[in-house]
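Dear Dr. V.,

Thank you for agreeing to look over these. As mentioned in my earlier message, I'm a first-year student in the group and I'm still getting used to reading structure tokens, so any feedback on how I've presented them would be very welcome. I ran two proteins. I've put each sequence directly above its structure. The first is here:
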Amino acid sequence: MDADEEVYVMRGARRMDVERRFLVSFDFHRLHRGGRTAVYRVLYGRRVQVHGRTYRYPGLLHEGARRLGQSVFAMDEGQANRLVAMLRKHRVPHTEWKAFLPR
């Protein structure tokens, strides 16, 4: 499916506008402290102060990803690849799905 292609889902007589997303789920509590910190930074971003200046590094949730529940996130393909790479690096068991979610 092309990224520009529109997909609609009919619910009764009403048309729902949906978007293609990737769901990623993992067990955050099984991570060691360093792994939790790394994954947390990828998801939520971080702020660093150096010599009185503040530098902000946005996380996936600031870039359009959505938190659906405990350790379950919906995001676009690029964001999902970034998160999955981090989870694999830290050997975290995870599950990925392709889904169509309401906008």
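The second protein is here, in the same arrangement:
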Amino acid sequence: MSQKTCRLHLHDRLKKHEFEHALITTYNFGASFFEDYALENFKSLQDNGNISVLLDHGQYQELLAEATENPDLFPKLANLRYLLHPIRVPGVFHPKGFLFAGKKRGLRLIGSANFTQDGLGSNAELVAAFDFEAEKNEMALPLFQSAFRFFESLADRWPSEQLRSNLNTLLDDVPWMSQPASENPDPDLPALLSNLETPLWINWCPCCPRRPRTFRCCRGSTMPGPRWWIMSFRLPRPKA
């Protein structure tokens, strides 16, 4: 898998292919944008009959509170056209990842973008895109399957009869989601890690070829305009 960085137009990617299933995690959710624009204009959602959106419980409550003052913001199609399922955690539910699947094709988007008008449009976001096509481009299959297992774990921890039904429908309709992965996976394929069971740091360290000494990450600024900061942390040496 080639490694390259390029400008990704999320609207174009979401308008490119049709899919029958969608699993979305987002911290913040733009209900009006989703219902009035995304469902109408994104080919990945237009005729998609199995859409699940999982969002932070606090943001869900704020969405409902704002809708009492402005009815236009109320998610009118929630649990009719798509499932809207809040997740309550001690902090915030913060993963942002979109999984689209059909019988032969899949699209996985993961990064910093919420499923909002700004997150998919004007914000400075960092997003990776992965494609799957049966018998043509299957290198990213392990990433799709690990993402689906993550959604299954969410359904186990925060039960919803409709969410479980949607996951089972996807699994029944998308044969490649459960097919055996290649015995020689792409070494450049990233691993999907979560902190549902253990902290991210504990999950991440075994993936490194040797003990890391420096950790760098990038994050967006809250200042006006698209700005990014690079943060570097020097890690302590292990005790003798």
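From my reading of the second output: The beta strands are 21-26, 50-56, 83-87, 97-101, 105-111, 127-133, 214-220, 228-234. The mean pLDDT is 86. Does that match how you would interpret it?

Kind regards,
E.
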